Amino acid sequence: MTLGLHLGVLALLGVLQLVLPPFHHGMLARIMVLAAYAAGYNLLLGYVGLMSLGHAMFFAAGMYGTGLAISYLGVGVATGFLAGVVAGLAVAAAVGLITLRTAGPAFLIVTMMLAQAFYLATLYFNEITGGDQGFILSGLSLDLGGRRLPLADPVVKYNVALVVFAACLLLNFWLVRSPVGHILRALRENEERTRLLGYNTPRYKLFAVTVSGLIAAVAGSAYTLLFSYVGSTFAGIPYSIYPLLWTLLGGSGTTLGPLVGTLVMTYLVDVASSLTTGYLIVVGVTLVVTILWVPAGIVGGIRARWAPWLP
Amino acid sequence: MSQDGAATISRRRFLQAGATAALGAHLPGPWVGRAAAQAEGPLRLGFQVHRTGIGAVYGRWYERATTAAVKLINEKGGIGGRPVEIVAEDDGTDPKRGAEVVEKLAVQHKVDFIFGTLFSHVVIASAPRAGELKIPYIVVSEGYHVASGRLNRYVFQPGITDVRAQVTAVAPWILKNLGKKVTLIFPDYAFGHDHRDFFSRVATAQGGTIRALLPIPPTETSFTKYFPRVPADTEVLYHVMVGPGVLTFVKEMGEHFGARRPQIFGFIDSLEGVDLASAGLEFLEGTYFWEAFPRYAAATMPQHVRFYRERVGVNANGASVNDPRDVSTFSHMFGCWETLFVIKRAVEQSGYKKPGAAAYRAFIETLEGFQSFPEGTEHPQGPKRFVGRLHQVFGQQVVSKVEKRRLTVIHRTAIEDSMYAPEADYTKQPL
What we know:
The structure holds two protein chains of two kinds.
Chain A: H1 2-19, H2 22-47, H3 55-73, H4 77-98, H5 105-124, H6 126-129, E1 135-136, E2 141-144, E3 147-150, H7 154-177, H8 179-189, H9 191-196, H10 201-227, E4 229-230, H11 238-250, H12 257-275, H13 279-293, H14 297-305
Antiparallel strand pairs in A: 1-4, 2-3
Helix pairs in contact in A: 1-7, 2-7, 2-10, 2-11, 2-12, 3-4, 3-5, 3-10, 4-10, 7-8, 7-10, 8-10, 11-12, 11-14, 12-13
Chain B: H1 11-17, H2 32-38, E1 43-49, H3 56-75, E2 84-90, H4 95-108, E3 113-115, H5 120-133, E4 137-138, E5 155-156, H6 163-177, E6 181-187, H7 190-205, E7 209-216, E8 236-239, H8 246-257, E9 263-267, E10 288-291, H9 303-312, H10 330-350, H11 357-369, E11 372-373, E12 384-387, E13 392-395, E14 398-403, E15 406-412
Parallel strand pairs in B: 1-2, 1-3, 3-4, 4-5, 6-7, 6-8, 8-9, 9-10
Antiparallel strand pairs in B: 10-14, 11-12, 12-13, 14-15
Helix pairs in contact in B: 3-10, 4-5, 6-7, 10-11
């Protein structure tokens, strides 16, 4: 049933592209990529209980890995994507090793410091990275069975975003239901007891940080390919906070929560910013209300009240 | 990397080929909705504005200059006989949101053109989307990114000069009048690097010596450790610090050098929106600044400058007539005013009526064909020369001196002083 629900959501996203007006078609493509990023974040926060304030470095690692490989080495989209994934994997594994023995506020602070160092490095090496201005990738096409699909094409953009999101969602879905997923949740509930039961908890935490960072890097790489831009802004602290907000709003520890949270927050910002310059107050009030009234987030609230079977 | 020439899958073809073709729905091309909405109604101009975020001070004044220019244009019959309507969207000075705003203005609001963006990272992130949507995107950014050829054929900057031109124009004056041994203090990110690279290039070519380059990390809050690194034989200290730390920077610079300071030359970008009479800025007395457009009113200023200041609502000190504490971004905001009159001229000369490939081609080729804009009500900052292949305008620059906590103009460069060898040609790009 739960797998059916997830496949149904993906099918709905597939069908929506046929009926959505052009603006919302483009918005949803962007939301799916960012929801993949939030899904990676949620794996760590929602299932292991580790709150990171440094995920932007993983997203940006994917972004720069892809962007620099294409820009400087002239590789194609697929190789560029792979370069982004490898870069993200390397950064995530390194961060995982460094943060292995931290938890709670210490983990949060260390990840934030490392992310800030990464952000400053993108500025320091500006002659390579383009610094705060960033750089553009244009004219990219995906080579699919001998046929070139331009990534600027709205249909290609939407469907690539859908494939990326689907892969991240299904990976999350499979992972949290697997034996490893149960151990990760045990870590969240009581790390000491999990260790006493004989599990190598540092190894599982390293695994969780690495996979979470890897998914964030996949999203970062996809964002660069689909929206043609690489810049240090995406390595900044706000972009570490956004997935936290999306996850909290949608429902931490639920597989569909990141999608719902990203969707609601993106449209909230879009609508509110058209009405008032104080749109961040609207966003803040929404978050406060959500945390006060539905502390488990939208999908988490639904799970608590009506659908306990939701993963 | 695959480049142009790739097959394009239209939404129609996708739907026809897909298993879901039975639904019969399709999504229109980039212009269809916009063209249907226009006909002969108002000319709708999308205004991508920094209402929030780090660019909010600039955005506020960009909006005031825009409102004033549109009011004037509409009083005089609009553009091509059509009233002008501004559709503003806040981009939060954020590159992600900037690209979304371009998409929203073009696809949802169905505007005719998009203009107004200032911050470089927002421009660079938004430009690809404008190119994909094939809508003219006319920025007021001051960055060299347009003239560098990094963007695309839909992006223009006809209302404000770029930083390379500004530096190229004033560098010879600095070397001749202030000294040849120069130390640069600049923020360690792209804006500062543009100054470092372009000034160093021009200065060394003209017999100057760069004594030291002192990049300041963007997170720095105290600058005392940098001033001892200024070589003792420095004749000119060139600074372009921006952001909230600038008052501390000036104060600490004064504490370090005291009365035995070298000549000091800065860019007004450091103090846009900041009152020169603010506490802590006393040390700037007797120093020099680049300005694009003199902030402080002078008795001898031309009538069209008086008119511009009056219409935008700026007092003699360059602050709002309604709130003297609200200091304008005077050396930048005129770019919105002038850009709107360039759009007016291009629309009327090209015969543009509504969005479409042919209409935009005519608009873009007309704009690329412009060569000059005369000084006057439409171009109050001064006469301009437009280089179509670069999509960039060139103009006069101003050197002012701080006297009695005000800026007094002491030198105005010629347009030719700011010209540099073109490195791009957008006209060769396909539309």
